[in-house]
Amino acid sequence: MRIKNVYLAPCLVIASLALITAIRYIDPAMLARRDNIYLSLVILQFLVLLLPAVFYTKLKGKGYISTLNMKMFMPDSIAFIIVATLALIIGSGAIRFVLEQINIPRSDMILM
């Protein structure tokens, strides 16, 4: 069953907005009781974006995924991915260290 983009694209947007609206009704105190509130929020955002995308690809039909030309990353780019990840972690730690040295108060929104 293949559905036209004219109908599917607005449905994707509506589904994403409905899930975002549903998240608004989750009690923040319930999330705060967990070990890591940031992980809970990342999982919720992941679900908000992932569920509509999965339904969209299912409704587009069987051959739609192959037309996306998605490929696994090459083995020679693993080193770049590791170096980029380390750069982000070290950079974040360095910024936090500098902010603590100049006595800028720590915010509750900082992940580290």
Give the key terms.
single chain, 2 domains, mainly alpha
Structure described in brief:
The chain has 112 residues and is mostly helical.
Classify the beta-strand content into a percent band: under 5%
**Nearest-integer average pLDDT:** 78
Largest sheet geometry: none
Low-confidence stretches: none
Can you describe what's shown?
The chain has 112 residues and is mainly alpha-helical. It has two domains: 1-70; 71-112, no CATH class. 69% of the residues lie in helices and 0% in strands. The chain is built from five helices and no strands. Helix 1 (5-24) runs antiparallel to helix 3 (37-60). The longest helix is centred in the middle third of the chain and has 24 residues, at 37-60. The radius of gyration is 20 Å and the shape is flat.
Give the arrangement of secondary structure elements.
Blueprint (H helix, E strand, L loop, with lengths): L4 H20 L3 H5 L4 H24 L3 H4 L10 H24 L11
Helix pairs in contact: 1-3
